[in-house]
Amino acid sequence: MSSAPSADAALGPALGKLIATLEEENAVLAEQKFVSHAAYTDRKNQTLRELMAAQRKEGTAMSTELRLQLQKLAVVLRENARLLKLHIAAVGEISDIIVGSLRDAESDGTYSRRSGTSRW
């Protein structure tokens, strides 16, 4: 079990950072705040690179604390995926409304299916 403290030292902080980033993003998504998600994507990508580097350096033995962190990460990731799916669906609906409005505004009615009305 001598590699567990080493694995904890490398993986623990990176897991903690990833969990904190996901929880922050989840809070923003749940509150439906208007923010750019690029910063969250960048932070998550950076932390994942750190995790991969730590994993390559360390053995496979993990402490109970590290296993608990991984379980928490799984829960937070599931919630993040759920909230992101809702957000993406909402953005899609808004995009559809905007595109429909633009099409309606561009149309002069020449080819519309209005019955009984004539332009001349």
Report on the structure:
This protein is an all-alpha fold and 120 residues long. The chain has helices spanning 3-30, 38-57, 64-106. It has one domain (3-103). It is 76% helix and 0% strand. The longest helix has 43 residues, at 64-106. The mean pLDDT is 84. This is Flagellar protein FlgN. It comes from Aestuariivirga litoralis.
Count of distinct structural domains: 1
Distance linking N and C termini? 88 Å
* Topology as a string of helices (H) and strands (E): HHH
Number of beta strands: 0
Q: What distinguishing features does this structure have?
A:
Flagellar protein FlgN; elongated
Helix and strand arrangement:
Blueprint: H1 3-30, H2 38-57, H3 64-106
Helix pairs in contact: 1-2, 1-3
Task: Provide a compact summary of the structure.
The protein is mostly helical. 76% of the residues lie in helices and 0% in strands.
